[in-house]
Design brief:
The chain has one domain (14-303): Alpha-Beta Complex (paralog of FGE (formylglycine-generating enzyme)). It has 3 helices and 10 strands. The chain has helices spanning 90-97, 147-156, 182-187; strands at residues 60-62, 68-70, 72-75, 81-84, 160-161, 245-251, 263-267, 283-288, 296-297, 300-302. A hairpin with a 5-residue loop joins strand 3 and strand 4 (81-84). The longest helix is centred in the middle third of the chain and has 10 residues, at 147-156.
Length: 303
C-alpha cells in the first residue's frame, strides 16, 4: 500500500516538558474521552511518582526516564510479555524530544544513518510533517515518525519496539504467526480472532474508514472501549486495529545501516483503512524505515 496523499493539519510547536497534567477528558474532535475503558486495564494503577514532575494520565505511568509513558499490560496464555495499552501519543513523544535524545553513532546498526554526516538522511528524531492538530492533540497517537525514531524512543524509555515474542526482530515472514509476532498475538487474542474484538468486522468498533463517515482522522488514544479484546489475558490493549498503523520490528533488511534498502512492516490499519486492512493478519510491509508516513505511529513492548 502506498501512503495516502491528502492535506494533513499542521502540528503545533508547543513542547510538553513533563507528563500530561491529568487524565481528564480533553476537548475537541476526539471520538471519545481519553480514559474510556482505561479502568479495566490490567496494567496496574497509574500513581504519582517522585521521578515524574506531573501527574500521568489514566492510561499512562511514570517511566524510568521521568516522563509519562504508555501503561503496559501482560499478554498471557502460554506466553508472557508486555505491550503498551495505546500507541505512543503526540504528547509523550514531544516530551521525549524535549530531552534532546542523543543520535546514534554512524556505525550503530540499524539506525546509524541518523548520524549521516552529509545531512541528507536523518540527523533528527523530529516529527517529519503535519499531523492531527487540535486542543486535544497531545492525547492523539503520534505519526510521521520513521522506524528508527520509534525504535530509539522505545529503547530509551526502557522498552523495545514490538517485534518477536521472546525479544528481538520478528522474521519478515512471521507477521501472522501468533507464536512469534508480539503485535499479531496481542491483536488476534492468540490467533483466535480476525479483529481485536472478535471474528466478525464491526465498522464502528475501531477508528477505520467507516467509523466516522464525515471526517477521517485519529481519535484520542485508548478512547474506544470497543476496540480491544474481551478474551482473558488479552484485554486492556486499545487500537491495535485502526487509528494509526504501527511500525513493527520486522524488516526486510534490518542490518542495512543506511536505511536505503530496508522496508519494515506496519500493522493494524488506520483511520482511513478498509475492513480488510483493519484485520490483525494484514500487514503493509512496503514502508522504507528512513521515512515518516501519514498515519503510521508505533507502540512499545517488553519481554
Amino acid at each position: 500500500m502506498k501512503p495516502a496523499m491528502w492535506l494533513s493539519l499542521v502540528v503545533s510547536g508547543t513542547l510538553i516538558l513533563g507528563c500530561s497534567s491529568s487524565s481528564s477528558t480533553p476537548s475537541g474532535n476526539t471520538g471519545g474521552s481519553a480514559g474510556t475503558g482505561g479502568n479495566s486495564s490490567t496494567g496496574g494503577t497509574s500513581a504519582a511518582s517522585t521521578s515524574c514532575t506531573k501527574t500521568c494520565g489514566a492510561l499512562e505511568e511514570c517511566g524510568s526516564n521521568g516522563l509519562c509513558v504508555a501503561k503496559m499490560v501482560s499478554i498471557t496464555a502460554s506466553t508472557n510479555y508486555k505491550i503498551d495499552v495505546t500507541a505512543v501519543t503526540t504528547g509523550q513523544y514531544k516530551a521525549w524530544l524535549a530531552t534532546n535524545p542523543a543520535l546514534p553513532t554512524s556505525t550503530d546498526p540499524p539506525c546509524g544513518w541518523k548520524a549521516d554526516p552529509t545531512g541528507t538522511l536523518g540527523e533528527t528524531y523530529a516529527i517529519q510533517g503535519g499531523i492531527y492538530s487540535g486542543a486535544d492533540e497531545d492525547t492523539h497517537p503520534v505519526f510521521m515518525v520513521d522506524w528508527c525514531d520509534a525504535y530509539t524512543y522505545c529503547k530509551t524509555v526502557g522498552k523495545h519496539l514490538c517485534g518477536k515474542i521472546g525479544g528481538g526482530t520478528n522474521a519478515y515472514a512471521d507477521f501472522a504467526d501468533a507464536t512469534k509476532s508480539q503485535m499479531y498475538r496481542a491483536c488476534s487474542s492468540g490467533g483466535v480472532n480476525k479483529y481485536p474484538y472478535g471474528a466478525t468486522y464491526n465498522a464502528t468498533n475501531c477508528d477505520g474508514l467507516e467509523y466516522n463517515t464525515t471526517i477521517q482522522q485519529t481519535v484520542v488514544a485508548g478512547s474506544l472501549s470497543t476496540c480491544q479484546s474481551s478474551t482473558a489475558g488479552f484485554t486492556g490493549v486499545y487500537d491495535l486495529s485502526g487509528n494509526v498503523r504501527e511500525w513493527e520490528d520486522s524488516c526486510s533488511d534490518g542490518t542495512d545501516p543506511t536505511g536505503v534498502d530496508a522496508t519494515c512492516r506496519v500493522r493494524g490499519g488506520d483511520y482511513y483503512a478498509t475492513s480488510t486492512q483493519l484485520a490483525c493478519d494484514f500487514s503493509d510491509g512496503a514502508q522504507r524505515y528512513n521515512a515518516g508516513y501519514n498515519a503510521v505511529g508505533f507502540r512499545c513492548c517488553s519481554g
